[in-house]
Amino acid sequence: MSNLLNNLTRRKSATALLADYEKDGNIHGTNLVRTLRLKDLISFGIAAIIGAGIFSTIGNASAAGGPGVSLLFIFTAVACGFSALCYAQFASTIPVSGSAYTYAYASFGELVAWIIGWDLLMEYAIGNIAVAISWSDYFTAVMHGVGLGLPEYLTMDYLSASRGFETASALLAQGNLLATLPANMQEAYLAWQQAPSIAGIRLVADVPALGITVLITYLVYIGIKESKRTANLLVLLKLLVILLVITVGAFYVNTDNWTPFAPNGISGIMKGVSAVFFAYIGFDAISTTAEECENPQRDLPKAMIFALIICTVLYVILALILTGMVPYQELAVGDPLAFVFSRVNLDAIAGIVAVSAIVAMASVLLVFQYGQPRIWMSMSRDGLLPQIFSRIHPKHRTPSFATIVTGFVVAVPALFMNLTEVTDLTSIGTLFAFVLVCGGILLMEQQQGIPATNKGFRVPYINGKFVLPMLLMAGLVLLYVYNQEGLTQFFRMDGGWETFQHKLPLIGFILVVIVLTLLTFTRNLSLIPVLGLLTNLYLMTELGITNWSRFMAWLALGLLIYFFYGYRNSKLHKPAAKVAA
What we know:
Elements: H1 2-8, H2 14-28, H3 38-49, H4 52-65, H5 69-93, H6 99-107, H7 110-145, H8 158-173, H9 183-194, E1 197-198, E2 201-202, H10 207-222, H11 224-250, H12 265-270, H13 273-278, H14 296-325, H15 336-343, H16 347-381, H17 400-416, H18 424-446, H19 467-482, H20 484-491, H21 496-500, H22 504-523, H23 527-541, H24 544-569, H25 575-580
Antiparallel strand pairs: 1-2
Helix pairs in contact: 3-11, 3-14, 3-16, 4-14, 5-14, 5-18, 5-23, 6-7, 6-18, 7-10, 7-16, 7-17, 7-18, 7-24, 8-9, 10-16, 10-17, 11-14, 11-16, 15-16, 16-17, 18-23, 18-24, 22-23
């Protein structure tokens, strides 16, 4: 039993990780092309962060929280900021691809590294499926606007068309007219009715989602230089449009719409956690580019922090502009930026925003399609996945097979399935990665063997022994003053298991707070990683028991694969490799 535990927690030191990378590069010719500079990394970060969140999910978040949602953007940015500092230290100490997976391998050990790697694969894949489908929706709307619309059965996924047709048919049977049904239901009904069929199977597929995924995968496949130029161009266009929205929208702000600032209280603001956090998940993708940076130890930390600051400022300003232009109740739409300008009769600006959304989402897809193959590659290098995933194309110098697999993993579901209902999995997966990265810094500080000569970025040390308890006490006071109703509901025991199960994530969080506070007091833990761990874990509790259940099911599937393949084929499982590491 002890031998099994030792194997599950076997770690690769920063020195061993760098040595493995250099060996792979120099002996087998697998070095990637180092071409990214600071401005390129910041551009990648902005490309990933400013996308579906700013053009879509910000609307529902504002409708739930009112103007106060701007505070949620700040709170989420602070939580991401703590994580960014921890990411920056790891990226500076271990400048190889793999993101949180590699960092977990160096701090927690192999089992946790596998879990976080498997988690990242889910996060990137589901996030990209959702973005591809959302991109298709915007693209289809713009095409209809210029009179070039495709048939409905070529712009909708199979499940949405099937379910919409069933619902619409039931309503029509009750005497309702098709024209009186919601627009999305009409589209689903027509798509299913008009679609050709083979052997009784309707041929309904989201072709634009497939097209953009194939195009982006091709760009990522042929090389980092092409991806870099495309990302930089898309980011420039996107920032120009956002500045246009802010500048023009400021003249139409009615400050009366900012009162009340938080109409639904703290609970209303926190309802937008998933939507708001979905807007921030991109900054960790910067760390996957470590092996293609000219100076990763210097540039990666700066890029993460700069991208986060720039995007937070833009998010807060845009949230205030949107809630100032129209009453917050009207913002529960899929295209809030275009909607507010249509609402004030500026249809030309609304059209520009709609087109820019296509650009914005394409840039997000580019960055994540670029990042995910490098996670596959890193896990393959360590033997946890088949060796073919770490194969580098001899001409393009990209992880070719992993890139193609990533394209299929995103394109096929986006073509046929409606997975927007599980986009919360992207947020919970990213938050889990952030929690482990912050925890990894705490572990690394307690472990021996951290290179003493490391001149890269380090998280500023602030002793949390007394500061953390004071911050927690202040938080409890604020909760009591501003959210007494929420506290009362939490301590109510009526409702049975159906009610109690939804409290489990928060109960778990409270237990972690107690344990971590005691450890911080007794071991003088660093405050910033502790705050990063706690804030991200709290945000996870806001995503609901359903998402936790789906997340745990995904991790369980990953553990089966690890014990049947990764555990036995790990390079650290071989005696010679174990001695070298």
